[in-house]
Amino acid sequence: MKHSHPSFEAIKPNIGSSFTSLKFLTNENIKSHVWHYHPEIELIYVCKGSGKRQIGSNISYFSDGDLVLIGSNLPHCGLTNENTNNEYEMVIQFKPDFLGEAIWETPEMQRIVSLLEKSKAGIVFGDTVKKEVGKKILDMHDSSSLDRLIRFLGILDELAVTQDCRILNAGKYYLQTQVEDNDRINVIFNYVKDHFREQMTLEEIADLANMKVPSFCRYFKKITNKTFTQFVNEYRITHSLKLLAEQPLSITEVCFESGFNNFSYFNKTFKEYVKKSPSQYRKEFNYLIE
Where is the HTH araC/xylS-type domain positioned along the sequence (predicted)? Predict the structure, then answer.
């Protein structure tokens, strides 16, 4: 089976604009299976809907839409597919120097400079900011020329000052700066994405990377800041969150559907990652199982 590398995506700004602003209706931008990167920084707003986000080595679940800022060359998958049930998706893409170099030296821009630096690890924003800024992104998209640019800088400044956000990749995220590592690590990421429901041994994964197990373990930890087992568990738990929120399956079925073959281990791992039990999590979604 052939495994895809992260593809390089070429992006052109809108005509008459220094950056790109795109609006996709439901199911128009299905890229959740496409692992890609580009030098442009990307601000994505998903209006309503739920799904998985995979940005760098972070895999997490979102519900009731999403607002994320993805830094330059940070590999990621698209956020929406036919199961997301979102109303629409806004995608803004801009080169780090889209206004030239000198403007970033000005005192007025220092907050935004700091935001863009943090975006190298991926940033997700909380509910209040998501709804307020989402509306502003839509208004910005419908305006033109200088008005559009001024609104966009206002949006970036608002994101720069909010405390209601979370960095997605802890520590230094090496994939962002070492594009030559992309091919090897992405064979592994894609393999996990395709096979997380099955049992995977360290031997077969190390083999995929053309490495011996001990050196593979060191390499993976250096690049992602987590062990391979942690990474796989995180992927499986994220999938279980999606199933618990969206599917009328029993918790035992969710456990096995997510690639865990031991129910008590699933419960223990779930609590470690989510800080509550699967049944508590489901109750909070008001999902009534007959």
Answer: 186-284
Q: What is the pLDDT of residue 180?
A: 62
* Residues pairing with 35 in the sheet: 77
Q: Name which of 30, 70, 65 is nearest 54 in CA terms.
A: 70
Q: What are phi and psi of 178, to 5 degrees?
A: -115, 75
CA angle 60, 64, 66 (to 5 degrees): 55
Beta bridge partners of 68: 44, 124
User: How many CB atoms are located within 10 Å of the residue 2 CB?
Assistant: 6
DSSP one-letter code for 173: -
In sequence order, what E strands does the chain have? 7-8, 20-25, 35-37, 41-47, 51-55, 58-62, 66-70, 76-77, 88-94, 123-125, 165-167
DSSP 27: T
Domains and CATH numbers, the chain: 7-167 (2.60.120.10), 196-284 (1.10.10.60)
Distance CA 153, CA 158 (A): 9
pTM: 0.78
Across the chain, mean pLDDT equals 86
